[in-house]
Amino acid sequence: MKANYSLAGLAATMLILAACADRQASPRVHAPFADGAPPARACLADAGPDRTFCVIVIGAERTRLAGSRVCSPVASDDLSDTYAVMDWIRAHPEAQDEELGPVIERVLSEMHPCA
Questions:
Q1: What share of the chain in percent tops pLDDT 70?
Q2: Please, are residues 91 and 68 in contact by the beta-carbon 8 Å criterion?
């Protein structure tokens, strides 16, 4: 009986090792910019995951910069700053291939500079 337990343990160990060796990285749910930081053109979408992504990134940057580089009088749940950044990106095609984060910072700090 003892040999059966050892054989079962060995088989279980082999299965675990095989599963770990075969494990691949989890695919991203949405990774349209796998080659680096997202460009500002990500904010050109009118709907769908790209627009959602853009709104989230602008909100995160606005929160990160609040009180240091950006002093917006607009409430954090008001999306007017977000829409203003998206409109700015649409109006400036020369900036659409730049990284999104620095573009957001530049636009928000010009809109609402801290004194």
A1: 69
A2: no
Between CA 100 and CA 44 the distance in angstroms is 11
Residue-wise pLDDT for 16-57, tens only, equals: 555 555 444 444 444 455 566 788 998 998 888 888 999 999
Token pair listed for 3: 């040999």
Who's near 28: CB < 8 A, 6+ residues apart?
34
Q: Cα(11)–Cα(6) distance, rounded to whole angstroms?
A: 8
The whole-angstrom separation of Cα 90 and Cα 103 is: 12
For the chain, what is the total number of helices (H) and then of strands (E)?
Answer: 4, 0
